[in-house]
Design brief:
Helix content: 25-40%
Protein name: L-amino acid N-acyltransferase YncA
Organism: Methylobacterium pseudosasicola
Mean pLDDT: 94
Oligomer: single chain
GO molecular function: acyltransferase activity, transferring groups other than amino-acyl groups
CATH class: Alpha Beta
Number of helices: 7
Pfam family, one: Acetyltransf_1
Number of domains: 1
Structural class: alpha+beta
Keywords: Acyltransferase, Transferase
Low-confidence stretches: none
Distance between the termini: 23 Å
Bound molecules: coenzyme A
CATH architecture: 3-Layer(aba) Sandwich
């Protein structure tokens, strides 16, 4: 993945193991900012920096993890990240979506400046380079702003599911892009 310049001196680059602490911190901060009111409080509280640090350290430290992570770096440090890999849903794979975006988070203070679009373009480029043609992702049905973002990038709803978790059943929809080349070309200027 080649570094891609984004808006306002934010650069998109591949993540390394040293980025794990900042990625874990952004993951938890973005969860708090995004999901208060959308998810049960107990579920939000259950996501700790320690847990996320362990998970991202494992992923970034294992070249065979199958997950690629891109980070968005500004002058004061990381402001967002995204991850992708092979499709995990057999149903969506059968529908042609061989790749999957597994996470994308930009801190609220850094949103609406093109960083999310640049991250999606970088993930699309990586998926294409690793032989994928299409990709999808899961988003909470009620996460309206993220859904508007995916729609702005040309995604369309290609699936839905009720995901049972310990504290709640989550209603989610899948957005898909059948042409990763188009997604790679589509950064939106902020
Ligand atoms: C979704 C997310 C990654 C978008 O990142 P971003 O850096 O703000 O995205 P961009 O600046 O590239 O936005 C591109 C376009 O998407 C649309 N968009 C983005 N955020 C939007 C919002 N909150 N409401 C409506 N449209 C939005 C707009 O059309 C925007 O262009 P504009 O700013 O010129 O109007 C970011 O808001 C985020 O991390 N949200 C919290 C975590 C989350 O929900 N992640 C997804 C989990 S599945």
């Amino acid at each position: 993945m080649d570094p891609v310049p984004s808006m306002e001196a934010v650069t998109i680059r591949p993540a390394g193991l040293d980025d794990a602490p900042a990625i874990a911190a952004i993951h938890v901060a973005a969860w708090l900012e995004t999901y208060a009111g959308l998810l049960p409080a107990a579920m939000i509280a259950a996501l700790t920096v320690e847990m996320r640090l362990a998970a991202w350290t494992r992923i970034l430290g294992d070249p065979a993890s199958g997950t690629t992570v891109a980070v968005a770096e500004g002058p004061a440090g990381l402001v967002g990240f995204g991850s992708c890999g092979a499709q995990r849903s057999a149903e969506l794979a059968a529908d042609g979506f061989d790749g999957e975006v597994s996470a994308i988070y930009v801190l609220r203070a850094a949103q609406r400046r093109g960083t999310g679009s640049a991250l999606m373009a970088a993930l699309a480029a990586h998926l294409r380079q690793s032989g994928h043609r299409a990709a999808s992702l899961w988003v909470l049905h009620d996460n309206v702003s993220a859904r508007q973002f995916y729609e702005r990038l040309g995604g369309s709803v290609v699936g839905e599911r009720a995901e049972r978790r310990e504290q709640a059943t989550l209603m989610e929809v899948a957005y898909g892009w059948r042409d990763l080349a188009a997604l790679q070309r589509s950064p939106v200027s902020g």
